[in-house]
Amino acid sequence: MKHLLRIDASMRTTNSRSRRLGDAVAERLKDMHGPYATTYRNLAEGVPFVDAPWIEANFTDPGARSQEQRAVLARSDALFSELKQADVLVLATPIYNFGVPAALKAWLDMVVRAKEAFRYTANGPEGLLVGKRAYLVVVSGGTESDSTVDFATPYLRHILSFIGITDVHVLGSALGGAEPEEADRSALAALDELLPDEAAER
Length: 202
Fold this sequence. Notes:
Blueprint: E1 3-8, H1 17-33, E2 37-42, H2 52-58, H3 67-85, E3 88-94, H4 102-111, E4 118-121, E5 124-127, E6 133-140, H5 153-162, E7 167-174, H6 180-201
Parallel strand pairs: 1-2, 1-3, 3-6, 6-7
Antiparallel strand pairs: 4-5
Helix pairs in contact: 1-6, 2-3
């Protein structure tokens, strides 16, 4: 059975459009492809920030890490393992002040680790998390996805590509004067257009 990692980055735990839309996307994928083993990660519950002890532990050779250093990296190791095991990533996020929420940036800092998520080679950086597909559900009040003031979507697409996840589909839902239901229906319609093509790949 394939593994789906479902991430919510909204700090709203109720009345969150990104959460509702992310749930709808995950359900549509299950309807099309069958059941997934699903891991759910709610970033509103808190994600540690990178600090000096984390950096020191991360850049210490794994075989030389102390018990304290292994404890420092334990949460990061767990988050990275969830991403590594996933075949499909559904990441739902709002846009805060034209960028990603702080908790989502913290999660990325926990999982984008040298020698595990990527490595440097003579030909430049190489992503190590290949063979995955990602769906980015990006919700905002008025910042259109990939517009000149959207610094969230291009960043997410780039950093996923950097670690090897190049099969990325963005489902944007910006109000821009539209009603929330209308904006969300438009995003789901884009997904429904994509799914038949995915089925043909199976």
